[in-house]
Amino acid sequence: MNTVTLWVPRDAAALAAGADEVAAAIAAEAERRGLPVRIVRNGSRGLFWLEPLVEVATSAGRVAYGPVAADDVPALFDAGWLQGGAHPLGHGPTDAIPYLARQERLTFARMGVTDPLSLADYEAHEGWAGLRRALGLDGDAIVQEVLDSGLRGRGGAAFPAGIKWRTVRQASASRKYVVCNADEGDSGTFSDRMTMEGDPYMLIEGMLIAGLAVGATQGFVYIRSEYPHAVATMTEAIERAMQAGFLGENVCGSGRAFQLEVRKAAGAYVCGEETAMLESIEGKRGIVRAKPPLPALAGLFGQPTVINNVISLASVPLILARGAAFYRDYGTGRSRGTLPFQLAGNIRHGGLVEKAFGLTLRELVFGFSAGTRSGRPVKAIQVGGPLGTYVPESKWDEPLDYEAYAAFGAVVGHGGIVVHDDHADMALLARHAMAFCALESCGKCTPCRIGSTRGVEVIDRIRLGERRAEQVVLLRDLCDTMQHGSLCAMGGMTPFPVLSALEHYPEDFGLALPTERAA
Fold first, then answer.
1. Among residues of the chain, what percentage have pLDDT more than 70?
2. How far is CA 359 from CA 47, 132, 237, 494, in A?
3. Sign (positive or negative) of CA dihedral 275, 278, 280, 282
4. CA of 162: how far to CAs of 109, 205, 217, 275, 324, in Å?
5. Taking the model in full, what pTM does it have?
6. Nearest partner of 192 among 218, 222, 219, 164, judged by Cα
7. What average pLDDT does range 80-84 have in this prediction?
8. Among 322, 282, 319, 326, which Cα is nearest to 300's?
């Protein structure tokens, strides 16, 4: 009897849904029935509402079942799932599931397909191809490839990655660094975590290529402290890559060195800001640095430093492997390539969708997420994290790209999307944004430190109806001060959710609707 392979995710979301218990139940039931099986712990495909999503290798390819609970396992064996048998939890061939089939998976092509820590699996699915090409190029050529691809920072700022790399490459210094900002603290975001847990060698390869491009020999991955599984997986992957010769003093026998270490983050949201992160890595309190100098010239330990987030660096291996033109052909305008959009909040089908720039919010929320979990109408959609704008229905058909969103005062950010139904109190959500800023501010600048606290007080007075018209004027003035006077985006962007809530949902603040005001 042939051994059948089953894939059970080891992603944190699947583990939270009982994946370990499911894997143990499958092994026990197969042994009881005398059926030889091989269980591979893969990453998640990103269909979180179906986790744990178990896949079975059949003659027709991988067949998916989910969400599987440990109690479902005996019935699945009875239904002949090892041969792809029909069952109410069955979804047919995994790749044909509409949620997956309609995506453009470039960065996430291996996600859920491979064993995350298997070097053989990684190499069999185009792994290290970008690195091997980069080893045959000089730094200028690598930088030019990244420039030509149109890749921009996926952490939120959307700064062209190639320009940053070129600046570090041209800087004169005895030592340079590559730092990966994996302090993914935005609400509703999880693509960095998925990457580190589900395809860690891709990030390692991207950082290696960055090091070759700029002349850096040391890298650090600064991982959010709330991500213990990502920390463990990255640490193990780095050790295995070192043993295999992909890291160390002689990368792939090239004579070039690159060391890589994991640093656990300090548990502060503001350490997601690049200079506060550098302070934290150096062992100091995570406080924002004034700029200039830019980190590209005086970053970690005062040396030129490339700082990119996980998805930015993870996009690089494919660009080098297939060429800049391949990547640039996806997207629209100056927003090239793909972005992993992360769908969360009050939705039926939460998860990750990798699509080329240019689709709309309506397509994501209603086409992929299938509307709200409550079944009630969507009221507001926050795009770009806890400091992102609440996008009203009038903008749901705008193309999701950096310039289109900037044109109406919004940001795409890290691709986090949080949906609220018509029960949401937008004034309360605006207050939450100010309270969040007050809690997480590093305290270095007055507009952020004091402004956020005053913001909570002002919104409370508006909600209570105390001199409401005056307080609205005061809130707008306060937001202007924070936006233009704060040292970093923590205070500078807190007004985005506040002002968008005030503008588009005035009734939640006890204010007249625009038509009522006109009358």
1. 98
2. 19, 34, 34, 26
3. negative
4. 23, 17, 19, 20, 11
5. 0.95
6. 222
7. 97
8. 282
